[in-house]
Structures are given as structure tokens and as C-alpha cells.
Amino acid sequence: MLYSPVSLIMVESRFNPFEERLARDIRNELSAAILQVFAEMDITPALKIARHYLAIPHESVHEKYIYDRLSRYEQALAIILDEKLVSAWDQALVLWDLKLFFEVHEILEHAWLPATGAEKLVLQAMIRAAGMYIKLHDQRNETGARKMAAKAADTLEANRQAVPPGLPLDLLLAKLRNIDPSPPLLRSTPAFAKDSEAQE
Q1: Where exactly are the structural domains of the chain?
Q2: What pLDDT does residue 9 have?
Q3: Residue ranges of the alpha helices (H) in the chain?
């Protein structure tokens, strides 16, 4: 069956920050804003970024991404406020369970910079674990995802004693080693798990 050029565009169009400048700028600026959102416990910094990009020429795929991100940011912020989560680790796990892996990278990278020793290694491993899902789902780069997952799993295994309590480490390791496209929930109550699954 032949497709018209318009049909092909509709079939192939997706939010692709790896090949399209506008998508990359939207992703980078929104994810950077999450740091300020959590610092101020206010969604306004992300809303300002969103309004800017919604006011300039864009496609429906960009708009869908922006609104989806804002919705999940609001969910994350509500949980963090309700549970009074202040550490970068705890906030990153909230983001992880909402499948906001680029934002996980953003939060943990700022914690990783001043960290030392085994703590620094664990943070780096979690950044790579999030990176595995970015490469697998967003970049569609299974080879890169496999390499990143292996580094993350090896480091986490070697530094078990430095992993904060409560993390289902064996589950995470199994997912990483099998390059499982379905990420594990790392901190969820049953109600939160149900909400998170709805994001897929």
C-alpha cells in the first residue's frame, strides 16, 4: 500500500530530541526547570518554560510532550510535598516511578557532583540506569542501552553497602541485565504504582 507524504509524516512523527533542535531544547529546559521546581516547591518555573514554547511555532508532538511533562511534574511535586521528601535521592525515585528518566539524570547529576567515594559511584550508576531507559525508549539505541545498563549493574552490585535502604536492588539489577523495557517501580505504594502504570 502506498502512503502519501502527509501520511508518512503522521506515521513517523515523534518527539525526538536526539535529531530535532526544538524537541531537544524543550526537553532540556523543562528538565532543568525541575531543579527549581523542587527547590521552590512550586510548579511555576516549569510553567514559564512551557508557556514560552507553546507561544512559538511548534507541532502537535511538541505540545503533547509539554503537557504530558507538566502533568507528571505536578504529580511528582504533590508526592514530594505530601511526604516531605527533601533529598535528591528520594526525589529522583519519585521521578523514576513516573518514568521521567531524563529528569532523574538531572536531579542525580547535581547530587553526584559534590559526592565522594561509594556514594558517588552509586549515584553515577543510577544516572546510567536512567540513561539505559532513555537510550532504549527515546533514542531507540539498544546497543547503547545494553552498554550503559551493564556499567550501571556492575557498579551497583559492587557497591551494595552504599545503596540507600529500601531500594529493590535485586529487581533493578535483573531489569538492567535483561535490558527489560519495562522499568521497575523503585519506591511505590500500591496506589502510586497503579497511577504510574497509567503513564505508559
Answers
A1: 14-84, 87-200
A2: 40
A3: 5-12, 21-40, 44-54, 60-83, 88-97, 101-112, 117-133, 142-158, 169-177, 190-197
CA of residue 18 relative to chain centroid, distance = 15
Residues in the chain where the model's pLDDT stays below 70: 1-12, 188-200
pLDDT at 138: 87
What's the confidence (pLDDT) of residue 5?
A: 41
Q: What distance in Å separates the CA atoms of residue 115 and residue 122, rounded to the nearest whole number?
A: 10
HEC readout, 44-67:
HHHHHHHHHHHCCCCCHHHHHHHH
pLDDT of residue 188: 60
CB 30 within 8 A of CB 50: yes
- The predicted pLDDT at position 48 comes to 98
| Grid cell for residue 53 | 514554547
Which CATH fold topology does 87-200 show? Hyaluronidase domain-like (1.10.3450)
Q: Phi and psi dihedrals of 23, rounded to 5?
A: -60, -40
